[in-house]
Amino acid sequence: MSLGEFQKQIQEMEKKIKEIHLFSQQQGVDLSEELKRMEEKLQNLRKQAYYNLTPWEKITIARKMERPTALDYIQYIFTDFMELHGDRYFGDDPAIIGGIAWLEKIPVTVIGQQKGRNTKENIYQNFGMPHPEGYRKALRLMKQAEKFRRPIICFIDTPGAFCGIGAEERGQGEAIARNLLEMSMLKTPIVSLVIGEGGSGGALALGVADQIWMLEHSVYSILSPEGYASILWKDSNRAEEAAEKMKLTAQDLKSFGIIDGILAEPLGGAHEEPKEMAQTIKKTLLEIIPKMKNNSMEELLRKRYEKFRKM
Amino acid sequence: MLGGFFKKTKYITMPRKTQVKSISHLNFLGVQEEVQPSIPDGMWQKCKKCGQILYTKDVEEQDQVCPDCGYHFRLSASQRIQQLMDPDTFEPWDEDLVLQNPLQDNKYLEKMKQLQEQTGLGDALISGKGSLGGYAIVLGVMDSGFLMGSMGTVVGEKLTRAIERATQQKLPVVLFTASGGARMQEGIFSLMQMAKTSAALAKHQEAGLLSIIVLTDPTTGGVTASFAMLGDIILAEPEALIGFAGPRVIRQTIGQQLPEGFQTSEFLLQHGFIDQIVTRKEMKEVITKILALHEGVKV
Fold it and tell me: In the prediction, which pLDDT does B24 show?
């Protein structure tokens, strides 16, 4: 059954429950047992619906405008977040945000691709598609984190690095490549979380980490399914078919051993309960970061190299 | 210098499929519709840039460079190795590395088999060790004739092994890129080759060893966004297409025409992303000079 069919059933069930509730109130009949059973059934149906999402349905959820962005999570997870701007070469890219903050009692550097929460923000943030200066800002903040031995937390959420004249003039390829090289050697723990879309090299440029986690309905791929379909089949309309083929869900990547873990989303997706999602992320960060700090730097770097070496 | 003034226009005669009144010059080729003079396969070729019809043997003698306008035709990996390395010194590595087909794509598997038969290559990269201008180097050469030189797990693994061995043996690496980017058919695994190769190069650099990258036509996508841009010294052949996104994608994204010369070697030189443009003719000499300056090991 597809999500649409599930949703239809769920709606019908909701309607029925409402009717029975109304009936029992009007007639003064006690149907609470019956209602309880139906509520349980409804909840099961909801769970099933989101447990069996197709890759394309997951993409739809991952791209939802209401889906919490990096800044939403930062606000819920950290305290005293202070944003730091600029790459010191060219400019400040609003598609990548970064800064310093407290994770409970641990000072950390936080970096994330930032999608807009409405159309106006999206235009300003370029739909989360960074320019080279965004990647260079990220690298500057990572180097700073290394200097002060702060763990780095990256939120990945981008359709891909921006394709445009300015991006090419300022070396989009070089900027991404430099991040891959530097991150592989950075002497501080790095955690990357894919919170929505992880699109191509533009995502990987924040993804060379010791620990890589994905939210349950997020996706991570070599290219958008539209781009994949356009390159291989010369038809970007076959994106849904491409999504099936590409193996881009968190579950696929976990089975391949590309990522370390999956963070369960609230029923219906992270946007239904952003605070709850943030708590799940926070709990995981507080579990894995102290463990990473226990490693010697040599050990940490060796493991990081081995992690990608195996892929 | 004066040679150009006295250059003879070359004429040839050939049978025509249909009778046409006045084609006396080969420059009309392609202008006349429906009239396709039949050229014996492989004897002649047309320059992509100046449109001149060239005698294939002439082009071969010029290392696949147009004798008229200097346009650099694409080279296969083996042609490149033959031109560059000292005779009988190149020893290829990992030729038998088997294809992983992580996404279980049968169509892809078939295509690969077909390509392997056609080209005699295992995948889009030849790696190995040999001597160049008398200096020992580790060499990697991509072949755009093999699935557009795309980087999947085999290319990524061969490259990583080559770089790692160079680090162990304290040798410089010289990498010639020619690639459309990460290979779509292997999905996320191809993407991860970008991180893997870059990390291997980081270790090589950390060991104080020299890496030279030579960008050739075309170098785009995930290859540009990884090891291709990470050499200590980055050279490029003239007029090569080099960029992150392909020109078609950019045109579609921004909805306007791209400026002339956009994403060429010359464009990258102007914007500060490569060290020098080097013609094919001078390539060996230039690389030898660089190796010497880094006090390379004489074989």
Answer: 37
